[in-house]
From TrEMBL:
The keyword Nucleotide-binding does not apply. It holds the Pfam family RNA_pol_L_2. Its main location: nucleus. GO terms for molecular function: DNA binding; DNA-directed RNA polymerase activity; protein dimerization activity. This is DNA-directed RNA polymerases I and III subunit RPAC2. CDD domains: RNAP_I_III_AC19 (cd07029). InterPro entries: RBP11-like, RBP11-like_dimer, RNA_pol_Rpb11_13-16kDa_CS, RNAP_AC19, Rpo11-like. Residues 12-83 form the DNA-directed RNA polymerase RBP11-like dimerisation domain.
Length: 94
């Protein structure tokens, strides 16, 4: 769920259910690597609540687009790590 202003699309808070620090910290990292991002942080409202709020502020681009781009970047990073690991395991077995 996205929470933000209709007038100012450069700042939004994204609420992700059934997630924790693992995804939130990874997304925070990839978002902070993007030069369009001026601020990014996350919080977990309560330890017993499986929800993460990620706040994104940009230089002017829509925050939702920057957030989507970072999610795709994170998927590419994970795919690269997986393929590198699989390749190393194959080399070790041979």
């Amino acid at each position: 769920m996205e929470l933000g202003s209709v007038q100012d699309q450069s700042a939004s808070t994204f609420s992700l259910t059934d997630e924790d620090h693992t995804l939130a910290n990874s997304l925070r990292f990839t978002l902070n690597q993007d030069p369009r991002v001026t601020f990014c942080g996350y919080s977990i409202p309560h330890p017993s609540d499986a929800r993460v709020n990620i706040r994104v502020q940009t230089t002017g681009d829509p925050a939702s687009e920057v957030f989507k781009d970072s999610c795709q970047d994170l998927m590419l990073i994970c795919q690269h790590v997986r393929s590198t690991f699989d390749h190393a395991v194959t080399n070790f077995k041979n």
